[in-house]
Amino acid sequence: MPANRSNRSTILRRGLAAAAALPLLTLAACGYGSETKDTNKNEKVAAGAEKIDGVDTVKIGYFGNLTHATALVGREQGIFQKALGGTKASYATFNAGPSEIEALNAGSIDIGWIGPSPAINGYTKSDGKSLRIIGGSASGGVKLVVNPAKVKSLKDVKGKKIATPQLGNTQDVAFLNWIADQGWKVDAQSGKGDVTVVRSDNKVTPDAFKAGSIDGAWVPEPTASKLVAEGGKVLLDEASLWPDKKFVITNIIVSQKFLTEHPKVVEAVLKGSVETNKWINANPDEAKAAANKQLEADSGKALPTNVLDPAWKSVQFINDPLASTLNTEAEHAVKAGLLEKPDLKGIYDLSILNKVLKAEGEPAVADAGLGVN
Length: 373
Hints:
Number of helices: 14
Distance between the termini: 31 Å
Number of strands: 12
Order of helices and strands: HEEHHEHEHEEEHEHEHEEHHHHEHH
Strand content: 15-25%
Helix content: 25-40%
Strand order of the largest sheet: 1-3-2-4-11-5-12
Low-confidence stretches: 1-30
Mean pLDDT: 89
């Protein structure tokens, strides 16, 4: 492999492994992640409940992020624990994709909520042996927010400094692709060109925006709404660029070993996820409060109303993993020169999810030809 291609591959492995939506509020990572204690009575195993397949505990990972609200709400409301019966649900929070993938590979978690980029990276780095995507969780929640005094229209983005969370992460690739569609040129690795792409952790981006060191950012929620709270204006919602205004932002993954050994436990978690999304969509205000309550329990700090409300409205909670959009995101990374064309065949196994959906009278979801069969 030529040196420049090797360098691009190395950079992408570092960048793509970052979460598609890096959290604003999480516990600091400890080892592979931060284990969290039971926070309410709904997490307790019911007396006399029967274990599934004799499994004592299933270990579930997620980010302290509103795009992972299915996990937040399902935990806070006790929906997962109810579905699991006597099998205990234990939880760990993460603040970056690499640590969650490492935890999955090490067996420190069995199932996780995670963004598309680290799922792609984890799958390809293991030659298709580490994980499967078994369901969807959320769509949307990504926006281009700018300083309205400096950027008044989309054409004004040219020549400005715009932040993305990390080189090669989902938002970075999406922004680079959008730049290319405008006919502008940017070196993907350095971020220099007709637009200056500044790679900035979501935790510090609002401060950089407030200080004027960046003119805007292409970021996920709740970072986008924090920028708006600092005087920013939403110039573009990424959903407007996708068919039906839907694109994957959060998937559910499982280790292949756990999936093979304990499919009934996986089914119970997916049943809980489907039930949680149904409850979220039927009770948006209560669900928003539940998600924020779990965020506070995990991190010690809830989101303020002026951030929580607009951020919540921009995320759709769905069971469909929107497989075709994950494949498109990978194609965008290849187009940007950050990724050699990956073989994603087999990354999905939606058989259990479709079984659960059928039992709920819901339509089946598709794997876009990237399933195990």
